[in-house]
Design brief:
A alpha+beta (about 325); B alpha/beta (about 375); C alpha+beta (about 80); A: 60s Ribosomal Protein L30, Chain: A; Phosphoribosyl-aminoimidazole Synthetase, Chain A, domain 2; 2 domains; four-stranded mixed beta sheet; 8 helices; globular; B: alpha/beta; four-stranded parallel beta sheet; about 35% helix
C-alpha cells in the first residue's frame, strides 16, 4: 500500500477502501470475508441462537498479555459462552483514527485472526469507518457475536439455586492492573499479564462434566459486580469467604499501594459459576484439568435470603456486605 | 508482602477479641483516620465488639471534611482554559455547590487523577504551555510530600506548577473536639501515618490536659484490637498516651519531613465540612511561595448553598447516629451525598446506609 | 490520607530517586523526606514518597507478640 497510515479516504467506500480490504483486512481474516457481499449468509446448526454485541475502547491498544484485537474476540466469545452457547461467528466494526499506522492495524488484525482461530470462531462480516485525527484513540472496535446453545443446556444469569457452589476459575484483578501498568499511569512495573482469554473451551468442559446453573464474566466492575448481579437476578443471597478469593501477590501489592480493591478490578479471562452441590466436585475437576481453570476454587454459596445481598466473611468470622461498584475505581490516599 | 503479611494473623486477632471480652472491656472509642474507618469496616469489627465497645468515626478523612467552598474553588480553577487540575482520586466525587470535579470533568474541565504530586510535576515539565495546579488535600502524612514537590519545582524554576492547598492538620482538630462540652468519648484511636510524621509527642496534651486516653495505632486488625485493649485497660490504670504502632512511629516523628513541611507551609484557620472553622488547623503556602499559590488566584465562585439540615457535625462528634439525621437515606445517600459522613464510602453514614433498609433491593 | 505501605528499597539513583519492591511489583519513589535510607531498607510509601523507615526491631517485637497471641488461640 502506498501510504504507511490510515487516511480519511480509506473510509470513503472508494478505491482506497477497497485497497485496505483487499491488501490488509481480507488476507488477515480470510475465509468468507473475501466474498465482500453486503451481508454474510450462514448455516446455523440446530438449537437456540444466542447473539451479543460489544465495543472495545481499551487504552493502550497493546498491553502485556493482549491487545484490542484479542480483547475484542475474547470479550465477544465469552459473552456467548456465559449463556452456554457454542460461539460460531463474529462481525467486526472498526472505527479507525486518521493517522493510525498500518503497522498497528496489521498487528491487531493478526491478533484477531489468531485468537479467532484458537477460539474456533470465524469473522464473517465487517465494516470500516475512518474518523478525523484526535478521535477514536487510534482504534475502536465493535463486534457482534452469534452462537448456538445445544439442546438441554440452560445457563442464565438468574439460574443460581439455593445451595449452589460459587466457583471462580483463577486469580482476579490481573487484566485491570496489567492495563493500568501498561498505560504508564502511576509509574509501576510488574511481571503481570492480562488474563485475556477465550473461555468457550473451559465452559464446554464444565457443561460436559455436569450441570452449571449460571455463569457471569467479571469484566468491568470486577468480581464484585458479577456477584451482585448474579445474586440480584437469582433472587438469592450469596455468602462468600473472602479468604478463598485468589489474588496474585503483585496485583495485591499494587492495589495496596494505590488504594484499589481487587474485587472491583476488571478481568477478561475469568468466569463466576453457580454449580449445584451434587455436581460441584465433577465440574471443579473438569475446570482444574483445563489450562484456563487450573486455579479454580469454590469461593462461596448461594442461599435463601435477601436478593442482591452478598456478604463477605473475613478471617475473623465476621462479615461485611459487598456494595455494587459505582463507576470507575480511582486510586486514593485516604 | 513483607511487614504487612506478618501482622495479618487471624489467630492473634481472635485471641485479642477474647481478651477484650474476658476483660469486660467497655467504652466508646473514636478513630480519627479515614484509613482506620476503612480497616474497621472491612474486618467487620463493630458488630464483633458491640455492644460493650462502641467504635465511632471522627472527622478523620481530610478529603471528606473539605468544605463546599473549597470544592467550588477547585472546580473554578479547573475550569480555567489553560489549567490542568491534578488531584488525588479521592477528591473526584466530593460534591460542591454546583458539582464535583468528576461532573466538571465531564463538562470539559481538564482534571487529571494522579497517585503522587510528583506526577503533577512531570505534567508541568512536559506541558510548558499549560498551568498545572496540584490540589493539595490530606493531613500531615501528605502535606510533606506536597511541600517536597513545591521545593523541587522551585529548584527547577518551573513557572507553570502551582498548588491549591486545602491541607489540614490533626492536633488542633482533636483539641477542638475534646474541648466540646458534650464530647463523650472514652479514648482515641490515633492515626498511624500522620504520627509517623508528627511524632507521638504531639498528642501528649490529650492525657495531660484533658485526661483523654489515646493510642497511636497501626492499620492492621491486630493493631486496632491491641489499641482497643490498651484503651480499655486505661480505665483502671489512668489516661495515658501509648504507641501501639512502634514500628512506624517515634516520639519525635520524622524531623526531615517536618522541616520540609514547615519550609513551605504555615498554619491558618480552616473550615471542616460539617463541623466548624477550627483555628490553626489548615496549611497554606508561605509568602515565599505565593507565586505558586493557586489559592491566591481570583476566581468566580458560586454562592454557597446552606446546609442547615446536615447533621454531620453531630455525627462526627459522636452525639447522634446517622438515622437521627433528617437527610439520611433520603436527600443524602451514597450516590448524592451531602456531608462528609456519606461522601466517604466508609464514612459513618455510608456504612449505616449499606446495612440499612434503604439499601435493600438496590443493595 | 493514611494509606502508606511498607516496601523494600532495591535500587537508589541520583536526585533522591529510589526503586522499591513490594510483592514483586516495582515502583520509583522519592527519598526526599528521609535521611540515610539505603538499599535493603524497608520504608513506608505514601503518594510516591518514602515517609519514614520501618523500625525493623520494633516490627520484630510486635510480630513476636502476635505469634504468642496466635499460640494462645490454639488452646481451647
Amino acid at each position: 500500500m502506498a501510504d504507511g497510515f490510515v487516511t480519511i479516504a480509506h473510509g470513503g467506500g472508494g478505491t482506497r477502501m477497497q485497497d485496505l480490504l483487499r491488501d490488509m483486512i481480507f488476507p488477515a481474516l480470510g475465509g468468507s470475508l473475501t466474498a465482500a457481499e453486503d451481508a454474510a449468509c450462514l448455516d446455523i446448526p440446530a438449537g437456540r441462537v444466542a447473539m451479543t454485541t460489544d465495543s472495545f475502547v481499551v487504552k493502550p491498544l497493546f498491553f502485556s498479555g493482549g491487545d484490542i484485537g484479542k480483547l475484542a474476540v475474547c470479550g465477544t466469545v465469552n459473552d456467548l459462552a456465559m449463556v452456554g452457547a457454542k460461539p460460531l461467528y463474529l462481525t467486526l466494526g472498526f472505527i479507525l483514527e486518521e493517522g493510525l499506522s498500518f503497522d498497528v492495524l496489521e498487528k491487531v488484525l493478526a491478533s484477531i485472526a489468531t485468537t479467532a482461530a484458537s477460539a474456533g470462531v470465524r469473522v464473517v462480516a465487517g465494516d470500516t469507518k475512518v474518523v478525523e485525527r484526535g478521535k477514536a484513540d487510534g482504534l475502536y472496535v465493535n463486534t457482534a457475536g452469534l452462537g448456538v446453545i445445544p439442546d438441554g443446556i440452560e445457563v442464565t444469569i438468574a439460574g443460581a439455586a439455593p445451595g449452589d457452589a460459587l466457583i471462580i476459575n483463577g486469580h482476579i484483578g490481573d487484566h485491570g492492573i496489567a492495563v493500568l501498568k501498561d498505560r504508564g499511569a502511576f509509574a509501576f512495573e510488574a511481571a503481570l499479564d492480562s488474563d485475556c482469554a477465550p473461555l468457550n473451551g473451559l465452559v464446554a468442559d464444565m457443561l460436559d462434566a455436569g450441570t452449571v446453573h449460571s455463569l457471569r464474566d467479571p469484566t468491568r466492575g470486577g468480581l464484585a459486580a458479577a456477584l451482585k448481579e448474579m445474586s440480584d437476578a437469582s433472587g438469592l443471597e450469596f455468602e462468600v469467604d473472602e479468604s478463598t478469593i485468589p489474588v496474585r501477590e503483585e496485583v495485591s501489592a499494587i492495589c495496596e499501594v494505590l488504594g484499589l480493591d481487587p474485587l472491583y478490578v476488571a478481568n477478561e479471562g475469568k468466569l463466576l459459576a453457580a454449580v449445584p452441590a451434587p455436581h460441584e466436585k465433577r465440574v471443579l475437576e473438569a475446570m482444574r484439568a483445563n489450562p484456563l481453570g487450573s486455579e479454580s476454587r469454590v469461593i462461596g454459596h448461594a442461599v435463601e435470603g435477601r436478593r442482591g445481598r452478598v456478604s463477605l466473611t473475613g478471617s475473623l468470622g465476621s462479615s461485611r456486605l459487598l456494595r455494587m461498584p459505582s463507576g470507575e475505581q480511582l486510586p486514593r490516599i485516604c | 508482602m513483607r511487614y504487612l503479611d506478618e501482622f495479618r494473623v487471624p489467630a492473634a486477632a481472635r485471641e485479642l477479641i477474647r481478651e477484650i471480652r474476658e476483660a469486660g472491656a467497655a467504652g466508646t472509642f473514636m478513630e480519627v483516620c479515614g484509613t482506620h474507618t476503612m480497616a474497621i469496616s472491612k474486618a467487620g469489627l463493630r458488630p464483633l465488639l458491640a455492644p460493650e465497645i462502641d467504635l465511632i468515626s471522627g472527622p478523620g478523612c481530610p478529603v471528606c471534611v473539605t468544605s463546599d467552598a473549597d470544592i467550588d474553588r477547585a472546580v473554578a480553577v479547573a475550569k480555567i482554559p489553560d489549567v490542568v487540575l491534578a488531584t488525588f482520586g479521592d477528591m473526584m466525587k466530593v460534591p460542591g455547590t454546583e458539582g464535583s470535579l468528576a461532573t466538571e470533568s465531564a463538562r470539559g474541565a481538564d482534571v487529571k487523577v494522579v497517585y503522587s504530586p510528583l506526577e503533577a510535576l512531570d505534567l508541568a515539565r512536559s506541558e510548558p504551555d499549560r498551568r498545572v495546579v496540584f490540589l493539595g488535600v490530606g493531613f500531615e502524612t501528605t502535606a510533606p510530600t506536597v511541600a517536597a514537590t513545591v521545593l523541587q519545582a522551585r529548584r527547577e524554576n518551573l513557572s507553570n506548577f502551582f498548588v491549591l492547598s486545602f491541607h489540614k492538620i490533626v492536633p488542633p482538630a482533636l483539641r477542638a473536639l475534646v474541648a466540646l462540652d458534650d464530647f463523650r468519648v472514652d479514648g482515641f484511636i490515633l492515626p498511624g501515618h500522620v504520627s509517623t510524621i508528627i511524632g507521638s509527642d504531639a498528642y501528649s496534651f490529650l492525657p495531660d490536659e484533658f485526661k483523654m486516653p489515646c493510642v497511636v495505632t497501626g492499620f492492621e486488625v491486630t493493631d486496632i484490637l491491641q489499641a482497643i485493649l490498651r484503651l480499655s485497660r486505661m480505665k483502671e490504670t489512668g489516661p495515658a498516651l501509648e504507641v501501639e504502632y512502634s514500628r512506624a512511629v517515634r516520639p519525635e516523628g520524622n524531623p526531615k519531613a517536618l522541616r520540609v513541611m514547615d519550609e513551605v507551609f504555615e498554619t491558618c484557620d480552616a473550615e471542616w465540612r460539617g463541623l466548624f472553622v477550627i483555628p490553626g488547623s489548615g496549611l497554606s503556602l508561605r509568602d515565599e511561595y505565593r507565586d505558586m499559590d493557586a489559592g491566591a488566584w481570583d476566581v468566580q465562585l458560586p454562592v454557597p448553598g446552606e446546609r442547615k439540615a446536615c447533621r454531620c457535625g453531630d455525627i462526627l462528634c459522636g452525639r447522634i447516629k446517622p438515622m437521627d439525621c433528617p437527610l439520611f437515606g433520603t436527600r443524602c445517600n451514597p450516590d448524592s451525598p451531602v456531608g462528609p459522613c456519606m461522601v466517604s464510602s466508609e464514612g459513618t453514614c455510608a456504612s449505616y446506609f449499606l446495612y440499612s433498609e434503604y439499601a435493600e433491593g438496590e443493595g | 490520607m493514611c494509606l502508606a505501605i511498607p516496601a523494600q528499597i532495591v535500587e537508589i539513583e541520583e536526585f533522591d530517586v529510589a526503586t522499591i519492591d513490594i510483592g514483586g511489583a516495582r515502583k520509583k519513589i522519592s527519598l526526599m523526606l528521609v535521611d540515610d535510607a539505603g538499599v535493603g531498607d524497608f520504608v513506608l510509601v505514601h503518594a510516591g514518597f518514602a515517609i519514614d523507615k520501618i523500625d525493623e526491631h520494633e516490627a520484630e517485637e510486635t510480630m513476636k507478640l502476635l505469634r504468642q497471641l496466635a499460640e494462645l488461640d490454639e488452646i481451647p
